[in-house]
Amino acid sequence: MSTSRTDTPTAHPLTGLGWNPRVEHAFDSLSHASGHALYPARVSSSRRGGALVRLPGEAHADYAPALTRAAREDPSTAPCAGDWVAVRRSGDTWLVEAVLERSTSLVRQGVAKDSHDQVLAANVDAVLVCEAADQGPNVGRLERFLSLAWACGATPVVAVTKSELAGDRLPEVLELVRTVAAGADVYGVSAHTGDGLAELAPRFLPGTSWVLLGTSGAGKSSLVNSLAGQSLMDTGEIRQDKRGRHTTTHRQLLELPGGALVLDIPGVRRIDVPGDPEGVDRTFADVGELAGRCRFRDCSHGSEPGCAITAAVDEGELDSERLARWNRLRREAEWNSARGDQRVRAERKQRWKAAEREARANARLKRGR
Predict the structure, then answer these.
(1) 220 is an annotated ligand-binding site residue
(2) Can you tell me the distance from the alpha carbon of 149 to that of 147, in angstroms, rounded to the nearest whole number?
(3) pLDDT at 292 over 70
(4) Distance CA 102, CA 100 (A)
(5) Residue 281 CB contacts under 8 Å (≥ 6 apart), including other chains
(6) Domain residue limits, the chain
(7) Is 215 annotated as a binding residue?
(8) Scanning 75, 79, 286, 289, which has the fewest C-beta atoms within 10 Å of its C-beta?
(9) Class of the domain covering 278-341
(10) pTM > 0.85: yes or no
């Protein structure tokens, strides 16, 4: 008598960390071209010169020499929390051989003289922007966070935290947030009372990767603990000046009991919008839609006749302060884009000079000098 058997595909050991066909293809392509035995891993946290990786068990890995050199030239290429990497053994040490191509990158525009960008998190599906109800909300800061989230290619979601502290003002606070967060879902939540968590929690699907973005003291750590139903992160006290203390001091990858992955990063007070204008355009989609109605394509939205934006401000349809913030962030994005182009040109010029010096040195050697 014969029996039939149905084979069930075995799940990849990194499936719970977000392993998917895109990552598998990128790793296989790199592995086949390498002379080393490589293993896939995801970066849980990173420090200068090394990273904590999940294989799926945790291990510390140093950077391979080639990766160290590349990161020295461009820090944005160094592994960061959320990255998928290829690692190999070197004696008793794990080495990060390469960073796989990122599907999304939450990038803070470089503010140093070299204008290199800082990658805050990689390969995230959604960005949870946390804005404390008792701290405003600060709509200008929120617009910057949203611009950053939209530019990275992930879905932004806004959590108005500490909702219990808003009292009767909560509906007004939520309405204000929704007016500047068009296209993003907004939730009022309280880690203290549990209000709103039942509505937000279903968004954290198994295998999805989230990053929490907000200032110190916005309640990110408390929110993660409430969503997890356990203490995964330390929480801190708010200072007398209402500014939060940095309870998160480095980026780390956390796994919620339901299977979602959360990247918590240190609180960020200053955000320079990326040079890519898409983030600002998505955040100010309402203003952009008005601009499309202007009579002239090159309208500067000042005193030109037929300016739909000026008319919207005069009629009370558009807040003049929101218009001013749109103009400010657009100029900032343009400046940062030009700054990045200038850095690329400078680096290219340095490579050309180095090549010329090497060519002259080789020519002298051939002449016997």
Answers:
(1) yes
(2) 5
(3) yes
(4) 6
(5) 288
(6) 15-101, 106-264, 278-341
(7) yes
(8) 289
(9) mainly alpha
(10) no
Distance CA 81, CA 44 (A): 5
**3 assigned to a ligand binding site:** no
- Judge whether 130 is annotated as a binding position: no
218 assigned to a ligand binding site = yes
Q: In this structure, what are the phi and psi dihedrals at residue 351, rounded to the nearest 5 degrees?
A: -65, -40
pLDDT value at 185 more than 70? yes
What token pair was written down for 146?
Answer: 């949203």
User: Is 80 within any annotated ligand binding site?
Assistant: no
- With cut-offs at 50, 70 and 90, classify the pLDDT of residue 2: very low
In 199-313, beta strands by DSSP E: 209-213, 252-255, 261-264
CA–CA separation, 240 vs 312, rounded Å? Answer: 41
CB neighbour burial string for 284-312, b if at least 16 within 10 angstroms, e if fewer: bebbeebbeebeeeebebeeeeebbbbeb
Residues 228, 200: Cα–Cα separation, whole Å = 12
In DSSP terms, 161 is beta-bridged to 132
* Phi, psi angle pair for 154, to nearest 5°: -95, 170
pLDDT above 60: residue 342: no
Which is the CATH superfamily of the domain at 15-101?
Answer: Nucleic acid-binding proteins (2.40.50.140)
CATH code, 106-264: 3.40.50.300
C-beta of residue 267 within 8 angstroms of C-beta of residue 218: yes
Tens of pLDDT, residues 74-129 = 888 999 999 999 999 999 999 999 999 999 999 876 555 555 678 889 999 999 99
Q: From the centroid of its chain, how far is CA 311?
A: 36
Q: CB 29: neighbour CB atoms within 10 A?
A: 12
Is the model's pLDDT at 37 over the cut of 50? yes
Average pLDDT over residues 331-335: 86
Question: Is 299 within any annotated ligand binding site?
Answer: yes
Measure CA 122 to chain center.
6
Q: Is 294 annotated as a binding-site member? A: yes
Q: Is 152 annotated as a binding residue?
A: no
Tens of pLDDT, residue by residue over 269-288, are: 667 777 778 889 999 999 99
Residue type for 142, please? Answer: L
